[in-house]
Amino acid sequence: MSKQLSHELLVVINDDLLKGISQRMIAVKRDVSKTTVSNVRFKIDKTSQLHVNIDQEGLKS
User: Which spans in 2-33 are helix H?
Assistant: First the structure.
């Protein structure tokens, strides 16, 4: 069973990614698996891409 990450941990992982820290180093620093960091990055990238598409195209009805 997977453990849900706290909002605070998601925020600090995101901050670390934005600073350019490697996923491996973030995993060690935050005591999570590299897969967890990769999954957080994927979700952030997916969400960011959605916002970029909406900003560029606007909301279509």
Answer: 7-18, 23-30
